[in-house]
Amino acid sequence: MAIIEAAERLFGSHGIDAVSLRQIGLEANVANKSAVNYHFGDRAELIRAIWQHRLPALEARRKMLLRQIYERGQTRDPHTVARLLVQPNYELLDARGVHRYTAFFRHALRWRQGQELRAREMGTTPASLEAIGLLKDLAGDIPHDLLMHRLRYACCSLFDMIFDRDCDLAEGRPVMPEDSFLAEGIDMIVTLCLRPVHQP
């Protein structure tokens, strides 16, 4: 567990390719220099382990939000559906109230070597699939691949904003109130994902 948490912190702060497995071992206070390789084999398996560590909490929260959406009849509201997709990530905080997983996830979404891993591991839990299905229902004639492309980069932008806000808070700089900040981020996702397709 110490290795997974150390990897999440370092990947989130510096990027996936910028951190060596040896650095992760040192951060985790593991005496054996080969411990990370021994337990996880390679970088991709370590990233997969981070996802597997976090998915149960994310899935449980997303299921709860889905129930609320159906109870309130909000499945056709774009902002509510977009919130469903990102709020569980936003609410996942470390012991110091920092969005460590979100910081990591913004790099995982961009990691060039991780395309196959993302396709296999992300968005495959029942609640995630249902949430993406609700977004697709709102997308009209936007092709699936384009919608997923838009969602990926919209989430990257929001998670960058969350990382910057955490840094500003840590350094004592003024920040937008949390409710307004998240509402702005969700509005950005809706605008980017659901805008009509430009015709040539």
From TrEMBL:
<protein>
    <submittedName>
        <fullName>Transcriptional regulator, TetR family</fullName>
    </submittedName>
</protein>
<feature type="domain" description="HTH tetR-type">
    <location>
        <begin position="3"/>
        <end position="50"/>
    </location>
</feature>
<keyword id="KW-0238">DNA-binding</keyword>
<dbReference type="GO" id="GO:0003700">
    <property type="term" value="F:DNA-binding transcription factor activity"/>
</dbReference>
<dbReference type="GO" id="GO:0000976">
    <property type="term" value="F:transcription cis-regulatory region binding"/>
</dbReference>
<dbReference type="InterPro" id="IPR001647">
    <property type="entry name" value="HTH_TetR"/>
</dbReference>
<dbReference type="InterPro" id="IPR009057">
    <property type="entry name" value="Homeodomain-like_sf"/>
</dbReference>
<dbReference type="InterPro" id="IPR050109">
    <property type="entry name" value="HTH-type_TetR-like_transc_reg"/>
</dbReference>
<dbReference type="Pfam" id="PF00440">
    <property type="entry name" value="TetR_N"/>
</dbReference>
